[in-house]
Amino acid sequence: MLTARTKWVTYSILLGAALLCGDKNLAAAAAAESDSDFFFTGVASAQANDNVFLSHTNAKSDTIFDLTPGLEFDFGKNSLTKGMFSINEDFQIYGSESSLNTGLTNAAFTSAYDDNKTKLNLNASYHIADQATRDVHLVGVLVKRDLYHAEALGEDAVTEKTSVGAGVVYDDTQYKHTGYTNWEWIKVPLKYYYEVEPKLDLSAGFTYKDNQLGTGGVNSNEYFYNVGARGEFTPKLTGELSVGYEQIQFAKGVKSKNGVGVDSNFTYAYTPKTTVTFGVSNDFGYSASGGSSYRIFGLNGGVSTAINDQWKANAQLSYNHYDYISTTEKDDFYNGQLGATYIINVYLSVTGAYTYTEDSSNITADSFTNNIFSISASLRF
């Protein structure tokens, strides 16, 4: 059952998409064969998972097969307004635990308008998830949930050197299993940019976030006052950084908390074929198990390289520290992945990957490790 606010935001995003689609450039694009493409997509994968339920003891291993047929429509290749709509159905089949077999729907819409003065990005997605995560795991049970996300972000040039940005971001997680806390939030970011060098801007901003929690959680408001920079820091280093004062105010019970807020992402072009990415974050969040609030500090990094025209390789590593506000729990969460892709032709590619996950918690029962080996074939034509 969608809440009133969920319906309001969903209708608003659909209306925004309809208005954007009403643009004469987009209408022409949809009618012109050269300006739009329609694709059939598909992914077939198999994974060996040694801890399906992310249990601390008595880990259950299984082989999981996924068949994911879908459709994709791309429009506006030669227009100011570009976009994509996709939908697919992920049929998950478990080798041993057939009771876990399920189908997961995924739908996404993205659209962007850019005339060098005004930029507008619209995104909306709906996804059904049924995999265990750090704080969504039960022994012998997977927790299915509906994930809604929508955002409208814009930026307009005020003068030759200044611009302002604003938007609305909406997210809603609805669990289909008792004992888990739904989390619905709306975020409103505001930014002012000033160009100090060609391709480099300084920024000042403010972000407001409203958190609405289900059973077990306490509603809150967040405020993030920040300064930062974005663009080309060196000829090879690009990205964006926001850092400042962040505060969370709870509706009842727990006193307000504050600290340093950070949001960043950087890309370093090590060679023409090799790219390194990294970022730092520091934010607030809520646990699905009981709705407890926490402070989360994160580090992430990755590297991708094109070995030749057919082979690509990548590696990612991330670390997150969860410091709970209303309980004594503290978690150190590690995730790493190694992968390689072989491009057979423009329509078909094959990927092999290994993923390692570990949660080290002072609550012993919440700690776990997980190893996944996977191979997949992706088709798009």
Can you describe this structure?
The chain has 381 residues and is mainly beta. The protein has one domain: Porin (Beta Barrel). The chain is built from two helices and 18 strands. The chain has helices at residues 4-21, 24-31, and strands at residues 36-49, 62-75, 81-94, 102-114, 118-129, 145-157, 162-175, 183-197, 200-213, 220-232, 237-250, 257-271, 274-286, 293-306, 311-324, 330-343, 348-361, 368-380. The protein has an 18-stranded antiparallel beta barrel. A hairpin with a 5-residue loop joins strand 15 and strand 16. The two termini are 36 Å apart. Residues 1-32 have low confidence and may be disordered.
Question: What's the quick description here?
Answer:
With 381 residues, the chain is mainly β.
Key phrases:
381 residues; mainly beta; Porin; 18-stranded antiparallel beta barrel; 7% helix; 65% strand; disordered N terminus
Taken in chain order, the helices and strands follow as HHEEEEEEEEEEEEEEEEEE
Residue runs with pLDDT of under 50 for 5 or more positions = 1-32
Number of helices: 2
Helix content: under 10%
Helix and strand topology:
Layout (H helix, E strand, L loop, with lengths): L3 H18 L2 H8 L4 E14 L12 E14 L5 E14 L7 E13 L3 E12 L15 E13 L4 E14 L7 E15 L2 E14 L6 E13 L4 E14 L6 E15 L2 E13 L6 E14 L4 E14 L5 E14 L4 E14 L6 E13 L1
Antiparallel strand pairs: 1-2, 1-18, 2-3, 3-4, 4-5, 5-6, 6-7, 7-8, 8-9, 9-10, 10-11, 11-12, 12-13, 13-14, 14-15, 15-16, 16-17, 17-18
